[in-house]
């Protein structure tokens, strides 16, 4: 797996669509991409895709507009005997083309691959990652997503290294990782039932999105008010419309929506906050504060919040901010687990005593 090249800053994707490889429509373009970035030749690229016809492999493609932005390939029977014996598929290749890096493409591809493996009844998925500095970003990404070493230490391909062994550090020096997929709740289709392409779009908000944004915010605020007794009742939709009408993308604020198949199903708003000049919290540089992150209940656990937060990561970096902050209710355990998996950690905690 060769996905650890240092990532470069880029603009936010205006369109991000994940779909299965269609050999008839995609083969020539895919052969060119594979030959340039993976296999070194079109002949080797043909061989690379040969098991797709018999169901031994699957490739998902990320497109931004008409361009291929990246791909992820799964081998359903790993060349690692231990993985094969335990029915653990292997993510053999995760590639994001250089001009599309820092746009959340890798995270969305991983979401789609993990979802596909879970749909096929697999409870674990595996991947390998290199050990030298070029693979640092990939190592961090996998750790944030819950991938754990398989316990054999560093390996030369499939063979574990031993104490005192002298080696050359190159791309074949890897660590094997696995992730438990049992937390991914998804209906399992029949093996021969083709799944509809996942079409996820993270984009700038538009004026026509306002009504949907207001309805999503009202749904979220109503749930909080019904679930937690110390939360105010949801304001009226008219008040929300007035508030969200004023929020827009700028050099100091972020507002994106997430679409599935053309329907807005979530949004995230945030803004750049200046360094703190008083109090004891140490924030010497500008930071990004998340005001709202909302995903409608019917499509949760499909990687939408993760895609929005990953997109925000790139925006924050592009604007010179290296800290992202948010507040959440202490009782919202699912949200807390998501944030922790994405690298957030608790700092200040508010205690409350009632009935005094």
What structural class do you assign from the helix and strand content? Answer: alpha+beta
| Biggest sheet details | 9 strands, mixed
Could you tell me the CATH topology label of the largest domain. Answer: Aminopeptidase
Q: Provide a count of the helices.
A: 9
Task: Provide the low-confidence segments as ranges.
Answer: 1-14, 187-197
Count of spatially separate domains: 2
**Which word captures the global form?**
globular
Q: Please, what is the CATH homologous superfamily of the largest domain?
A: Gcn5-related N-acetyltransferase (GNAT)
Mean pLDDT score: 82
Helices, strands, pairings?
Layout lengths: L16 E4 L2 H17 L2 H7 L8 E8 L2 E9 L5 H5 L4 E7 L8 H15 L4 E7 L5 H9 L3 E2 L5 E2 L2 E2 L12 E8 L19 E5 L5 H18 L9 H9 L7 E8 L2 E11 L13 E9 L8 H15 L5 E2 L7 H9 L15
Parallel strand pairs: 4-5, 13-14
Antiparallel strand pairs: 1-2, 2-3, 3-4, 5-9, 6-9, 7-8, 7-9, 10-11, 11-12, 12-13
Helix pairs in contact: 1-2, 6-7
Structure write-up:
The chain is an alpha+beta fold and 356 residues long. It has two domains: 182 residues, Aminopeptidase; 140 residues, Aminopeptidase (3-Layer(aba) Sandwich), CATH 3.40.630.30. Helix content is 29%, strand content 24%. It contains nine helices and 14 strands. The strands form two sheets. Strands 1, 2, 3, 4, 5, 6, 7, 8 and 9 form a nine-stranded mixed beta sheet that branches. Strands 10-11-12-13-14 form a five-stranded mixed beta sheet. α8 links the parallel β13 and β14. α1 packs across α2 and α6 packs across α7. The longest helix is centred in the middle third of the chain and has 18 residues. The N terminus is likely disordered.
